[in-house]
Amino acid sequence: MKKFDPRSKLIFVIAVSSLGVFIKDLYLLSAVTILSLAAAQMTGGNIIRGIRKLKTLYAMIIVIAVLQSIFNNEGRVLFELFEIPLMTTAGLERGIEFILRMTIIIISATIITTSTSREMIQGLVQLKIPYEIAFLVSLGIRFLPMLTEEIKDSFTALKLRGVVLKNISLKKKIRIITYLFLPVIAGTIKKAEKIALSMETKGFRAKKHRTSYLILKYSKSDYYLIAFSMIILLTFTYLNNKLK
Amino acid sequence: MSDKKYILTAEKVSFRYSSEKEFIFQDIDLNISRGSIVAITGKSGQGKTTLCYLLSGIIPRVYKGEITGSISLYGENVSKMKAESISSKLGIVFQDPETQLFMPEVEDELAFAPENFCFDRDEIDKRISGSLRAVGIENFRHHETATLSGGQKQLVTIASVLTMNPDLLIFDEITAQVDKRSKQAVMDVISSLKNENKTVIMVDHDITSLELADEVYHIQNHKLSRTK
Q: Given CB atoms, is A73 within the 8 Å cutoff of chain B?
């Protein structure tokens, strides 16, 4: 698998996600979705994982389609109840549009994950983003699972005390979650404090500038990928404006 | 007192955190000779970690409180030294490796500190190789830190501190979260550091890991007393 520079991947992802947000035509959106899936496959992105993440959003197609059908009097009625249109062609289109947009954003994000956080930091630094910002963003991503784990542990502790969240009222559920919130936040702040301490003892921001052991260099294929990103961005923008 | 024989000295040090009324330490004296291994023991809550923070200047730089007496590193008052000048003389490893590893790969992790000190690529490479060798984990260079065991992670944190080539190392209960085998590996590293004339302060509640120590101190009731 060809290894692209994280900067060229980032440019591609920004181009494709932007298209995913502003393109209105369903056919063009489908084409961008196929393109992002192909790019993810090509760069070694974990498509299956991305699709699994989208699974929970699939139900949203129905919700959006029904809401759009009820409140937006466009398109041909496909299904109605007591003369209220529950499903129209326009509503269905909006639902499909939503899921395609989400697919483009999530699948293109998997392309980013094919670079390590160190490569991403260096990519951002070489794109003239201050190191502190690039490093803190990657640190945030790196420690996000830690926060999730902390929340999971709190819920497990709750279960072990015999509290079954499914069986209690929403009011009580909210109250219990509020109780859990405080120790989780306190634990996270404590961990963050320790991380900061460790960073400082290793000379973080000791000098105004810092050197880098990892230096990224563009290869020919990176230039092709950047050019390709620009071409698809301009072409799809042009087609989108023409089909309006 | 700034005797050249001693790398670190603490003279009549008393300390209490700003939020607390009671002093954690009162009139503590400690002289650390170059190339020695010093063990400090004490039960939980006696202030072992606080002592590490004081000796390394984290108190009062990060955590505030009332300090009396003086702590000197190479004759310089630690509380007045800048963080970066302490880091190149004194390295500290904490108990939990999870909060000391920030990078995805071992090599990146070890490059972090020398990069902060603006060393060039060749020098960073040399320091990474040297530290990995000193800790005996050369084959982990391209491993992902997340896939390592607790003991291996702790060895990586030691190696990452060694890249700054400090003369004095403080280990704050670094074997508390590792199994017996990993604990032995860490002890072997400490033993080899002594052969390289490094000075080590190991703080631990477990007395069985103290055979290596030249001097042993015990913290109890706000006092530090020498037991070996």
A: no
Cβ neighbour number for residue B165 with a 10 Å cutoff:
16
> Which chain B residues have a beta carbon less than 8 Å from that of A207?
84, 116-118
- Give the per-residue pLDDT at B1: 46
The CA-atom distances, in angstroms, between B213 and each of A82, A188, B6, B24, B187 are 86, 35, 16, 24, 11
Q: What is the mean pLDDT of residues A11-21?
A: 94
> How far is the C-alpha of B130 from the C-alpha of B113, rounded, in Å?
14
Give the architecture (CATH level 2) of B6-226.
Answer: 3-Layer(aba) Sandwich (3.40)
- Distance, CA of A51 to CA of A71 (rounded, Å): 30
User: Which two three-digit tokens encode residue B5?
Assistant: 């024989």
CA distance A161 to chain B (A): 26
Q: What is the mean pLDDT of residues A104-124?
A: 89
Is any Cβ of chain B less than 8 angstroms from the Cβ of A190? Answer: no
Both tokens of B122, joined, read 């060749």
Section A218-242 average pLDDT? 94
A139 has a chain B CB within 8 A of its CB:
yes
Contact yes or no for A118 and B103 at CB 8 A:
yes
Dihedral sign of CA atoms A187, A192, A194, A195 in order: positive
